[in-house]
Amino acid sequence: MIKQRFHSALVALLLIFCGLCSQASAQQAGSRATERAEGPSPARTQQRLERADDSTTEFLTANGLKAIHRQVTGNEVVAVQIYFRGGSRNISEKNAGIETLLFEVAQQGTKNYNKGQINRELASMGTVIESAGGYDYSVIAMRCVRSNFDRSWQLLSDIVLNPLFDEKEVALARDQIVNGLRQQNDSPDSYVAQLSNRLLYKAHPYINSPAGTVETMGALSAADLRAHHARILATSRMLVVVVGNVAPVEVRKKVETSFGRLAKGDYRPDAMPAFTESNKAEFEIVDKAVATNYIRGTFAAPPLDHPDYPAFSVAMNILQQLFFQEVRVKRNLSYGADATLLSNNANSAYISVTTPKPNETIRVMFDQIDFMQRQILLERPLKAIVSGFLTQYYTKLETNDAQAARLAEYELLGGGWQRLQTWISTVDQVKPEDIQRVSRAYLKNFHFAAIGDPRQFNRDLFVSR
């Protein structure tokens, strides 16, 4: 009976990956699904990746600024991303969100170009400049067409080097961000994510959100931004990534000309501590009248540079498909059951669902986790699943922006951008025993947060894993 259930689950997974709707027998459907899922082959994708890495180079300026460049000749888009290391370790409970505000205001005027000039020129060229703060780094990014690369680079580099931090622009951007933060709790999805993260992030640098809070963001001034900008503008904190149809010599010249006079600084990232709350299960609920209950369980996971990350990436992908099949398709308990692995320095993952029947739904989701922890997948179906996973993975890297972000992610968190070259072969070597092992090691100690009617929740159930 167990083998029959397991075979049926694998067939269901393969049907999902291949988009089949056949009503043929399980054996025939599984066979056809396997054949379809095995193309394109990982070997062919590996060859494309190796060719990409052949066109990827790095260099270090005399003052210690590292740059990564990938020359892409298949399109005329150039993506430039400038990273500042530190993230949550750059901030405190008093100034959380300062880098998010800093890079937003920096785009509103510099010592050489006023806000109107910047906006007019960007609009006329079709160039986009945007920024974001993160737990491990902040980034300001630019995307333009090749013909406008020179002028777009000038504007971007001036925004990084010479922001004006005009008092009026600081107040305007700050008020807009604060209004957005006030509305976060109006979105149950966003609110439950914050609550669940806070349970895991207690006594950890990540407890200081890069997005800030209403209180911290509202207290930031132009003087605060100037002081923080002076602190982080050092090449030991920075990384430049360029992906596009530009020659390496041109990229090097631009990086050295724009940033060659910056001080190196003495930034050295400390080892990221582990989550102190990761070895226990937790449950917190907010009593709120909503159309359906919102549930999210965050838990510790292997980081990008950990040997378990490839296997756990596949395991989470399988779990996501099992949730879809068992929670949505078979039982119609939810339209939104999910399992997601992140890629932070101190890493985490989460399972989430919206449902009017929380206890029944979580039992079904726990059953799928138990199933993965007890059973060992068959070799051939796993190969098909891995092939589908890799195809989806690389489909998401088709744009120059996505490639630049992935290169930076591996450089900053994954042990070096060169490890991208071995990603396919590493994932392709994942064995059925690895899936069971990482499922047992990490799919536990869930920090559940929920929004809904407390009378519908069995607390003991939610803290049982």
Describe the structure.
This protein has 465 residues and is an alpha+beta fold. The chain folds into 2 domains: 224 residues, 2-Layer Sandwich (Cytochrome Bc1 Complex, Chain A, domain 1), CATH 3.30.830; 204 residues, 2-Layer Sandwich (Cytochrome Bc1 Complex, Chain A, domain 1), CATH 3.30.830.10. The protein is built from 18 helices and 11 strands. The strands form 2 sheets. It has a 6-stranded mixed β-sheet with strand order 1-2-6-3-5-4, with helices on both faces. Strands 7-11-8-10-9 form a 5-stranded mixed β-sheet. β9 and β10 form a beta hairpin. α4 crosses α7. The longest helix is centred in the last third of the chain and has 22 residues. The N terminus is likely disordered.
Tally of distinct domains: 2
Distance between the termini: 25 Å
Radius of gyration: 24 Å
Counting DSSP E segments of at least 2 residues, the number of strands comes to: 11
Q: Tell me, what is the CATH class of the largest domain?
A: Alpha Beta
Explain the layout of strands and helices.
Elements: H1 2-18, H2 26-37, H3 42-54, E1 56-60, E2 66-71, E3 77-85, H4 98-106, H5 115-125, E4 128-133, E5 137-145, H6 149-161, H7 167-184, H8 188-201, H9 214-219, H10 222-232, E6 238-244, H11 248-259, E7 282-287, E8 293-300, H12 309-330, E9 338-341, E10 348-355, H13 358-374, H14 379-395, H15 400-413, H16 423-428, H17 432-442, E11 447-452, H18 459-462
Parallel strand pairs: 2-6, 7-11
Antiparallel strand pairs: 1-2, 3-5, 3-6, 4-5, 8-10, 8-11, 9-10
Helix pairs in contact: 1-2, 1-12, 1-14, 2-14, 4-7, 4-10, 12-13, 12-17, 13-17
